């Protein structure tokens, strides 16, 4: 019995002694202390922990730390979000002083946010680009997208307008959908934005149209609501392996935003402030009054008009010697912008917190008191139980935005005013109509556009480890957004000679509200068996979004002082109203398998259901498979000592899109504008289509990742090919149906393919000096590969097989006739006339390739970073303005090269007032010819920043730095008179901004 008992429950004496001795060794605790520095300056908030244990501490503001360690060969890990991690074997030392100066990038230490899970960059099978706060902070921008332009291969970011509050065109590996802003109320190529785990609404945004003349497409961007200083990192998911976990939302890529969280340690107060000035950098020199009037007189002569009509006031009524630089007056002003942010953060081993508040203001380059204001308040809480089984994360971000703008962009005004036009205002300050000879643009500018918005984004996630291998998580979120727009029409809009008063004053008011909630339960299972590692993620999504909108038109006010009080109006009309409910459900899963840290397989699947589709196609399946081979872990790579890391990866899968808006598949009706026999009419506007279904994008990618010289040089090269089919567009119908089209899935296929390369190098790495360089190159190609019966469709004039989805079909310009001074074009079909059939030249509009160079240099307390961007593209050029050569207004001096008998080899034809049919037709045809499209290659110093960290001994307990920043600093291009990056005619381009600021931490 005793023998059996000991065999079951006893330990032999020798084993007992061995365990006691080793237990004494394990139990021996000792204290390790030291100082953490960065560039010889104390560095606080560095997390220090012993590898394999729960012992954790944080360095204080003096860089000091103390930690208890145990074991015979303890290892300490030093972590800070802005620097590479350090791993130190302690040995018998009791004091460890280390420096976290900028070192080479350690690829195996970088952790990527993939949305529903995190993955080490070394083990990733997908394509994920990452930009951290160190690249974002202190940039003189109000939207973080401006700060990351050119920093991610395959991600094209273009600012739609330099006017505050405007939107961005973000293309992740090209345009997948045929639906753009020109064909629908929203851009179906917009990526999915996820802020702290909460997807932002897209696809059913209501646009009142009140801002269309001042903000392109009346568009804003979800990230306008977030101060760039509040962002910790941005990850962009690009390929199928990375985006398939988002299923129907991942076709256009996913942008993941992570806001800053609290840091363990002493409670810390920080304050950031900056002030900047902005202007339009590239403005053409305009014609003088003498040159302009000479051109105008020539136009009348060319049209055979000898007696200039009285209505040509610039030639008959106004001072012929007067000159005003209207360009400088309307868009040549200086924009001011300021930003102030305060943050309190801290915590202990179990709980961390962060509380922040920001206030931003920005004026325009227009004359007048136009101003954009933004206020943000953010709260972040993280808690982890002592046994590390339970964790809770809560974040809430509240934003208010107020924007006051003119009704239309002044960029489109100054070219329409003659240089000798009279003063805008009389001596008494009233608007000058110059005896009814002047259509004063400031009268129209009195139609002020105002918008106020409020947005709340809240997220709560709970994690609990049921076992060491199984974790349950619930992610939930709530968003609330309200936007109020106003367009004022005061009586000052009208010429006083019309005797129109406040009875014609009016206001158009648009109100939009949207609320959304999301709940996502998840299970995560991780199992390690010898060399095999298994990870399984299963989850579901339940989301509901409710939106409502209303546009009112109120008129006939007793006074303009009451114009914003709708209750004072005698007439109120509901222009439009509506409400929408969007439901979204899905189940998703991810299986990840690794063998021997060499071979990785990642399988993702998702089934989505959307209320935006008909009952026959409400659900759809998406998935992807990704694989990676870490070649550098193979034994036959060991002799290659200079090779630190090598990985070959690839992926294939599908993603989808439901960015079509709500109720598009249903029979839809709207009330008529006019009643019939006293009864309100109802008109059908859309036909029912039960087969209306999902767009689908199939993504393929192959990539190679290499690192050399202990990760001092890192290279990534990738090729991708995405094909999008079942395009959600309006399919034309015969006129006998009473409808022009029906919403359906068109059998057209769009392909996006290309190469992406990234090279990162730690050029110099010393204690007091470091220099890092990043090179990025992208060569995207977009083309339409299939479109059934395109020649017989309404898309025949805007699309062509084998070309990109953004094209222009143009006449072939053959030159200027030196004898007649008239533009000449090729008559392709030789029928003796120039019409649509002769527009056979197809020009693809857009980027051919893009390259960026980012340099980060640090010398002691000085930090310098600058980004140079090189873009080769085809764009519309300024020659399209030649159509107005001869009309009242003004043009850049390049248009002075027009035909005269003394200048027969001119660039432009002789001016016309459009009274001459031959000249006017030629001028219009010239605007639609290949002469107006050209290469727009440019080199731009996108941004530059210089920061100085004031030595710690100067302010003792205060960390302080000052900085200088520049955005759109310098541009070289042969592209005349326009910003080569920005080609939206009539809108202010992005500004050149310089700012000064400081950061203080207590």
Automatic annotation (TrEMBL):
Which segments constitute the TonB-dependent receptor plug domain?
121-254
Q: Which Pfam families match?
A: CarbopepD_reg_2, Plug
The protein's topology relative to the membrane is: Multi-pass membrane protein
Q: Which residues form the signal peptide?
A: 1-27
A cellular-component GO term for this protein: cell outer membrane
Q: Which PROSITE patterns match?
A: TONB_DEPENDENT_REC_3
- Any transmembrane segments, and where? none
Q: Which UniProt keywords apply?
A: Cell outer membrane, Membrane, Signal, Transmembrane, Transmembrane beta strand, Transport
The record ties this protein, via Gene3D superfamilies, to: Carboxypeptidase-like, regulatory domain (2.60.40.1120), TonB-dependent receptor, beta-barrel domain (2.40.170.20), TonB-dependent receptor, plug domain (2.170.130.10)
**SUPFAM superfamilies in alphabetical order:** Carboxypeptidase regulatory domain-like, Porins
This protein's source sits in the domain of life called Bacteria
Q: List, alphabetically, the InterPro entries matched.
A: Beta-barrel_TonB_sf (IPR036942), CarboxyPept-like_regulatory (IPR008969), Plug_dom (IPR012910), Plug_dom_sf (IPR037066), TonB-dep_OMP_SusC/RagA (IPR023996), TonB-dep_OMP_SusC/RagA_CS (IPR023997), TonB-dep_rcpt-like (IPR039426)
Location within or outside the cell:
Cell outer membrane
User: Which family, according to the similarity comment?
Assistant: Belongs to the TonB-dependent receptor family.
This one is known as SusC/RagA family TonB-linked outer membrane protein
Organism in which the protein naturally occurs: Epilithonimonas vandammei
